[in-house]
Amino acid sequence: MTPEFLRRYYILRIISNPIVYGIEKNEFVPLEDLQRSLDQLRSNNMDDPLYDKLNLHSQKTIKRDLEKIKSYYKAIILHKRNYGYYLEGYYINDALKEIYEKTELYLLHHHAHAWKTYVTTARSSLSSQVDLVPLIHAIEQHFLIEITYHGWYDDSFKTISGFFQALHIKEINKAWYLMAYNEQYGFYAFSLDNRIKSLSISKQQVKEPVAFNPKAYFKNVIGILKSDITAEWIHIEVANHHFKYLENNPLHHSQQIVTRPKELDTHNLDYKNPNIWGEIKVYVEPNYEFLMEILKYNLWVKVVSPLHVKAYVKHHLELMVNYYK
User: Fold this and answer.
1) What gap in Å lies between CA 39 and CA 7, rounded to an integer?
2) Shortest CA distance to 164 belongs to which of 178, 150, 153?
3) Which SS3 state, helix, strand or coil, does residue 28 take?
4) What is the pLDDT of residues 34-52, one digit of tens each?
């Protein structure tokens, strides 16, 4: 992240949500208020070089920044004379939400020491053998990486050693994974925890790099594991008090609402009351990671179809119940 990126990021954030920054002028942001907010952010972080260029905010500079914002973020910021700047349509799309989230997470880590009294973050399993910045650079430049990896049960206890093309890094459930490829193993998901015994980045570029589209590859899976199981629509009933949660935190990007609970707000949770149950559906592979995700939601969700997926979940629940007999 550069100081210029951060300035443009805050320009976009201030204009898209001005009330957070104390600007309450019918969703418009006058130039003076924008400059004042940027000055305040700079003042709050005076000793941090990342914030060095927040107060470089002349009208000419902001005009150039708005063009960059339009190009990078596909967000159009307009200006109405005598009122100020505003975001066209007042709509924050999913791509922009992702940029906001990733930048805020970066800033949390950047300020981790200074903010440790106020923010607690979850520990991840990332190995000390792994440095993400040069690894990302290797992905960008198609540099070969050399890995020595001792697998656990999920990896059939295999020891893998060799050169791979690094393709994509994915974080899920406090764990980090590297998608990589070579001819012997094909596409492989390496857990970037202490299974990584060594990882080095060469200066040798892949001669014929393979293409990798993470959205397409992970399209029908909950987590990281892609199996030979056919994806299908799975219908899940959800109790009302958790229905709202899954509306805001979908199980999967394919999630659709089939029916909403007839009684969305009830003080008593009577799971025998059919009116507290709504239904969603997701189009995924019903594999091990899907099972783990369903079990995470306790008695608040139940798979209702297809019957073989319902039986798969039921079988595992019965095995668990037997532990306590």
Assistant:
1) 11
2) 178
3) coil
4) 999 999 999 988 888 899 8
